[in-house]
Amino acid sequence: MSQARAPEAPGSARATMSLATLTAMVVGGMVGAGVFTLPARFGVATGVVGSLIAWTIAGAGMLTLAFVFQNLAVRKPELDSGVFVYAKAGFGDFAGFTSAIGFWASAVAGNAFYLVFIAATLGAFVPALGEGDTVLAVVLASVGVWLFHLLVARGVRGAAALNRVVTVFKVLPILAFVVILVISADAGILRANLFDYEDLGGLGEQVRNTMIVTTFVFIGIEGASVYSRFARRREDVGRATVLGFLSVLSIFALVTLSSFAVLPRAEIADTRQPSMAGVLESVVGPWGTTFVSVGVVVSVLGAYLAWTLMAAEVLFHPARSADLPRAFARENRAGTPIVALLVTSLAAQLLLLATLLVSDALDFMLDLCTSLALIPYLLAAGYAVKLAVTGDGYEGVDPSVRRRQGIVAGLAVGYTVFLFVAAGLTFLLLSTVILAPLTLLYVCARRENHRPLFTRAEAVACAVVVLSAVVGVLALATGRIVL
After folding, report:
1. Is the dihedral of CA 208, 212, 217, 218 positive or negative?
2. pLDDT exceeds 90 at position 10
3. What is the C-alpha separation between 275 and 36, in angstroms, rounded?
4. pLDDT one-digit tens code per residue, 81-136
5. What are the residues whose beta carbons fall under 8 Å from the beta carbon of 388, sequence distance 6 or more?
6. Which residues, in sequence order, are CB contacts of 39 under 8 Å at separation 6+?
7. Is the pLDDT of residue 320 over 90?
């Protein structure tokens, strides 16, 4: 293993990612397992009208975040380390660490979800795999963790190129699903699903109940920012973010709404995950389940690859700036941050073992992944607001542009706060249970580099995280939180 090398500027030998590759990283990160769960997740929560409102809110909210990442790439081109560095630049070292470790933990939880989801999908053909939470399922998923570890260890750029190819092949079956359902649409069924709300609560409650899954499927929107150090042109980072988001939003909304045109909502809600398989089977017969299942395996393996790449990068950057122990910045001969990758693979392995102890492994990992991702999103949006207020990065820019971008960043902050409320207290406490012990890595890094541990404000923030974690542990111990 060699020590970490200094970052290289766009246009250097290592800056080899084109706009298409960066966009594929965004799409590849977002199009994973979540899209295949959408019919049932929405069917449980709402009908057509609620879905339209939910996708409008989620689309508008996540679009503000996409614009935030696009704007930050332009205003601060020297910050090429993704979401972590925005929090650090805006709010200090501990905020940067919290953003990085939160994003990393979210990626690991997402990867555990992906592997459990593959096992659950194959469980339709191999009953011993169950819902992805049996011993056999965990063993097979563990093999997958270490096979991908070996693949990524061979080189980040090669794995990113493979991800671009996989992204194309995993989007095609989803588009085929939409086309088949649109052709088979029944206007009567669609009308019946418009206002099927009797047992679902008020419309506002229904929409709120969809927010976690809509947020989960969009996690990865920051993928181009994470890989900005490899971009050929800096402006491609922002373009890839917006292009990838708009493409994926269209796909997700069509999958949801087309399902309501072929089956009654209650039947969709009862469909076994991956629910896209059951919906398609109701239209074309048994081969529909096989078709979607193959799509799930290709899609989820591609998403796992993309998220493993991003998780390793997110540990690598803080180590270079003394916010994590310097060991995490070590690269192998292929330029892969190998220690960061090893820790990521080990963490995914531990979470897979934990699935044997929870009652619903799929929903648990999905909700945990989403809750952890909200912290870096909130801090990045907050930094964009700070830039707009102070004018930093807006030298020579029309004041109206600055005001407009400040409003968009403010809306992104508001949307993220709304997501915290929608996530609920349980998963926020569980997030701190994970984050609090990981703070020891920050302490070790500060001592390793002979730096002060905390400012007064950072000490208060750390105390809040630790106290929340204590509350979470007590809630688990007393049964107030049940996994």
Report:
1. positive
2. no
3. 6
4. 667 788 888 888 888 888 888 888 888 888 888 888 888 888 878 888 887 778 89
5. 394, 402, 403, 405, 406, 409
6. 255, 256, 259, 268, 271, 275, 276, 278, 279
7. no
Determine the Cα–Cα distance for residues 36 and 43; give it in Å rounded to an integer.
13
Which residue carries 């805006």 as its tokens?
90
| C-alpha neighbours within 13 Å on the C-beta side of residue 29 | 29
Q: Which of 44, 290, 137 is nearest to 278 (CA)?
A: 290
| Best CA proximity match to 122, nearest among 137, 111, 108 | 137
The encoded tokens of residue 240 equal 């890839």
Which amino acid, residue 208?
R
In whole numbers, what is the pLDDT of the chain averaged over residues? Answer: 79
**pLDDT tens-digit map of 165-176:** 666 677 778 888
User: Rounded to an integer, what distance in angstroms lies between the CA atom of residue 365 and that of residue 132?
Assistant: 12
Q: What is the pLDDT of residue 411?
A: 94
Angle at 303 between CA 253 and CA 357, to 5 degrees: 100
Tracing tokens 């999958």 back to the chain, one arrives at: 255
What angle is formed at CA 168 by the lines to CA 164 and CA 171, rounded to 5 degrees? Answer: 130
- pLDDT tens, position by position, 301-317: 777 777 787 788 788 87
- What is the Cα 297 distance to its own chain's centre? 18
**Angle in degrees, CA 166, 173, 161, rounded to 5:** 10
Cα separations in angstroms, 38 against 30, 33, 58, 202: 13, 9, 14, 20
The residue-averaged pLDDT of 263-291 equals 87
C-beta of residue 28 within 8 angstroms of C-beta of residue 229: no
Kindly report, residue by residue over 429-483, the tens digit of the pLDDT: 888 888 889 889 988 988 888 888 888 888 999 899 899 989 988 887 887 766 6
Q: Which residues of 247-279 are buried (b: 16+ CB within 10 A; e: fewer)?
A: bbbebbbbbbbbbbbbbebebbbebebbbbbbb
Q: Which residue has the tokens 């045109």?
A: 261
pTM attached to this predicted model: 0.76
For residue 25, the one-letter residue type is M
DSSP for 227-290 reads: TGGGBSSTHHHHHHHHHHHHHHHHHHHHHHHHHTTTS-HHHHHTPPSSHHHHHHHHHH-THHHH
Confidence of residue 8 (pLDDT cuts 50, 70, 90): very low
Phi, psi angles (nearest 5°) of residue 331: -115, 150
Helix (H, G, I), strand (E, B) or coil at 17: strand
Q: Which CATH class is domain 19-478?
A: mainly alpha
Amino acid at the residue 424:
G
Buried-state track 283-321, b at ≥16 Cβ within 10 A, e below 16: beeeebbebbbebbebbbbbbbbbbbbbbbbbbbbbbbb
